[in-house]
Input
Amino acid sequence: MGCTGLSASPTVQVASSYFELPDPDDVWSPKIEGWQRRERFDAELLAPLESGPAVESAGWSEANRQLPSDQRDENGLRAKYFRFRSERKRALASEVAEWIQAEAKQVYREDGAVDHWATFEETLARGGDDCDGLELLVFHALRDLGFAETEVYRAIVVRPADGQHHMVTLWFEDPSDPWVIDPTGAMTLGMPRMSDLPDWKPIKVFTDRLEYTVRPRPSDLATNP
Output
């Protein structure tokens, strides 16, 4: 997994379908599966022996059931709450991006001749890694900070101009156009949308338990031969 610099040549961005099942002979699947097994093994070793008791819901009161008839009011409490939540989540994710991109300047380490995908624990124990190890700090940080497992994925992206591959975190606030956090800043700085990076193409998204292949949407194939 090479970590590379930015490309200056513009290309046309094609919308993607991110959550397609991989082909049986997908060349990335063995690599992803091997990392998943090691990541889950490390996590099980480090998991707390006991967890606190679950908090039981008190249930709905009769007053809670008496909701206003119009829930689409932009000035209503529902709309205000979700706007506030979205703003705070974006600010938090942006802060994570800023932190890791600054930290990477101190702890980035090349793998050498053999490309090894570190686990989260390996990255912490080693005190650094290349892009695929440092990306795990973003992946785990967002999930530890309350982002849903269905929102945050590791992603392999490729730059078709030169065939360079890179590892980033995708946050799917928008299922069709995720935010990109590049741990090293080699692909991009800050936290842009995937649609803002036409030089790069996502090809795989995965977690420690799931794997998907990214393919162009059928509607886009018709307009972008």
Notes: Confidence is low (pLDDT under 50) at residues 5-10, 49-64. The helical segments are 29-46, 62-65, 77-107, 120-126, 131-144, 218-223. The longest helix spans residues 77-107. The two ends are 29 Å apart (CA to CA).
